[in-house]
């Protein structure tokens, strides 16, 4: 299938994703420094489709601090390239093929949020950066927001089913508009500056090696778009092999 046709189908999937029956949209803004998103709740920016649960532990004017649980499942693919837009487009195409049936069970899998991109910057102006694009694995029917499905094996060897082994804390910068490489880097810079101003040096330094972009909107959404940059610190008590 031509690339243009695949991308068009991907846009339609994002625009028409059906709300999950297990998700309840929050209808009140967080007002305190410590707020919790319970397992049965989903923030409004998830638009009623499956997205990971988290706890909000701090809110400032510049960023939010969230705790995410361990063992979250994602379907991922890694692309190495000089430009963010081209690399992410290629990664999205692979993952969309997977949820469209390019898997061992030939099953169609519902679209979720966010599309998460792990960005590992190159070490010089002409060094290639690394981008890992991920789709969140949907929740199991009647499992609430605690149990994800057992995803089928991908057909494309470049696509993998992976698990976040550790719980992690994310410092999250939210921004609107259309996410492009320049706007994502600007948000990451603003987040780093805000963390340093608050004395969160370790969290700011975590963004030097890698950071995440998370996008929640259909490309057909014009107003009120929701984008995030995450600086992630793993749970120090989590042991990985």
From TrEMBL:
Cleaved signal peptide residues: 1-17
PROSITE patterns, sorted: PROKAR_LIPOPROTEIN
Pfam family, one: SOUL
Keyword Signal: yes
UniProt keyword Ligase present: no
Sorted UniProt keywords: Signal
Domain of life: Eukaryota
One GO MF term: heme binding
Family, as annotated: Belongs to the HEBP family.
Name of the protein in its database record: Predicted protein
Species assigned in the record: Micromonas pusilla (strain CCMP1545)
């Amino acid at each position: 299938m031509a690339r243009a046709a695949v991308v068009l189908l991907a846009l339609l999937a994002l625009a028409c994703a059906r709300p999950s029956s297990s998700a309840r949209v929050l209808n009140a803004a967080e007002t305190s420094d410590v707020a919790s998103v319970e397992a049965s709740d989903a923030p409004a920016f998830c638009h009623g489709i499956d997205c990971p649960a988290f706890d909000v532990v701090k809110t400032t004017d510049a960023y939010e601090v969230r705790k995410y649980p361990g063992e979250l499942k994602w379907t991922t693919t890694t692309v190495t390239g000089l430009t963010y837009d081209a690399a992410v487009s290629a990664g999205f195409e692979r993952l969309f093929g997977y949820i469209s049936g390019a898997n061992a069970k030939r099953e169609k899998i519902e679209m979720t949020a966010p599309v998460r991109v792990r960005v590992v910057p190159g070490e010089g102006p002409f060094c290639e950066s690394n981008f890992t694009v991920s789709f969140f694995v949907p929740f199991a029917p009647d499992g609430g927001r605690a149990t994800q499905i057992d995803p089928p094996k991908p057909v494309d060897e470049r696509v993998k089913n992976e698990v976040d082994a550790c719980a992690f804390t994310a410092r999250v910068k939210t921004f609107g508009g259309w996410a492009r490489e320049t706007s994502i880097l600007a948000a990451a810079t603003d987040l780093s500056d805000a963390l340093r101003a608050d004395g969160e040096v370790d969290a700011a330094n975590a963004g030097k090696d890698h950071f995440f972009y998370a996008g929640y909107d259909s490309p057909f959404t014009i107003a009120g778009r929701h984008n995030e940059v995450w600086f992630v610190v793993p749970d120090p008590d989590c042991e990985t092999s």
